[in-house]
Amino acid sequence: MTDASGAPHQPQTVRAQARTLMALGLPLIGSHLAQIAIVTTDTLMLGWYGVLPLAAVSLASPIFFAILVLGSGFAWAVMPMVASSAAVGDDRQVRRTTRMGLWLSVLFGIVATPFFFFFEEGFLAIGQEAEVSALAGDYMAVIGFALTPALIVMLMRSYLSALELTRAILLVTVATAVLNAFLNYVLIFGNLGAPELGVVGAGIASVIVNLASMVCLILYAMWKTPQYDLFRNLHRPDGEAIAAVYRLGWPIGLTSIAETGLFAASSVIMGWVGTVALAAHGIALQIASITFMVHVGLSQAVTVRVGRAFGRSDRVSVRRVSLAGLCLSLIAVVLTITLFLSLPELLVGAFIDPDDPARAAILVTGAALLAVAALFQAVDAAQVMALGMLRGVQDTRVPMIVAAVSYWAVGVPASYALGIHPALGPVGVWLGLTVGLALAGVLLQRRFWTGHAA
Fold this sequence. Notes:
This protein is mostly helical and 454 residues long. It has one domain. Helix content is 81%, strand content 0%. It has helices at 14-49, 51-71, 73-87, 91-112, 119-125, 130-143, 147-162, 167-187, 199-224, 239-273, 275-311, 315-342, 344-349, 359-392, 397-419, 426-452. Helix 3 crosses helix 10 and helix 11 runs parallel beside helix 14. The two termini are 19 Å apart.
C-alpha cells in the first residue's frame, strides 16, 4: 500500500488512530457545537420571550432541519468521495465531485424553498393549536430563505473536512454563532432601535448567519486549496460525476431524514400531549442535541479517515479507525449520562424565564425527559458512528433501509403508543425514540463489522 506521494503506507495502531481522530475530530466537534449553539440561542432567547413562541419554534425547527438534512445528502456524499480521491492524489476527481455536489445541493434548495410558505395550514391540519401554528408558520416562511445557503455551507464543510482542513470550519462557525446571538438580541426583542419581531426575528437572524457562513467558507476554500481550482467550469454539467454523487447521496439524505424525521414526528406527537409538554420536549431535545454533536463530529472524522483508507484499499486501517472512533464515542457517552442524571433541573431551567408561570411544570417534565435521554445517548451514538463508518466505505443504500425500518416502522409507532399512555405521557414519547435508535444501532454496527471489517 502507498499514499498519494507513492511512499509506502503503514497502518497506525488503534491508539495512534484515536489521536489522529481527535486532531481531526475536535475542530469538527467544536464546529458542530457552535452550529447547534445557533439553534440553542434561538430556543434560549425565545424561551425568555415567551412559552408560546418557544413552543412554535420547537414545532417548526425539527421540520426545517428534516428538510435540510434531506437535501444535505449530496454534501455528505462529497466527504468520503473527496477523501478517497485525495488519498490517491486524484485532484481532478476532487474538483468534479465537489462541483457536482454543489449543483445538486443548489437544485434541491431552489425546488424546496417555495414549500416553506404553506406550513401554517399543514400544522393546523395535523391538529396543532391555532396560535402555535400561526407563529410556527411565520417562522418557516422566513427561515426557508436560509435553506439554499445552508446546503452550500454543508457542502463546503464536507469538502474541507475531507481534506482535513477543519480548523477554519470551527472558526467560521464560532464567529457566525456569535453573530446569531447578537442578531437574536436585536431582532427578537427589538433592541438597539430595531422592531420587536419575535419568532420572525429569529428566522431573519438565521438567514443572515447562513449567508455569512457560506461566503466565508467559499472564500477560504478558494484561498487554501488553489490546486483544485474548485470553481473552474462551474457552469458545465458533468454527467458521470453528478451521477456518482447522486447515487451515493440520495440514500444518505433519506437516511438522515429518517432519523431527523423521527424527532420531528416526536415533536408533533408531543404537541398533541400539550403546550407545556412540547416546550419541555424542545428544551430537552436541544440539550440532548448539544451532547450528540460530539458523536456527529467523531462520526464525520471517522468517515474521512475510513474513506482515505478505503481509497487505498487498506482494510486494516478501516478496522482500526472504526474501533478508535467507537472507543472515543463511548467515553463521551459515559460523561453525558453522568451530566444528564446529575444536573437535569439546572440544564432545563437555563432555557426558561424565572418569572414564567409555566416554569415549574416545564422543569418537572424536562428533567424526566433528560433521564430518558441519558439512556438513548448510548444507542444514538452507536447508530451515528456506524453510519459514519459505512459512509466511509461508500455503503449507503442498505443503511437507508435499516434506518427507515428502525425509525419509522418501529420508533414512531412506539413513541405514539407509549406517549398516549396516561401513566407515561411525554416520557413515553422518548422511550419510543430509544427503541427505534437502539434497533438501528445494533443492525448498522452488525452490517459494518460483519461485512466491511471482517
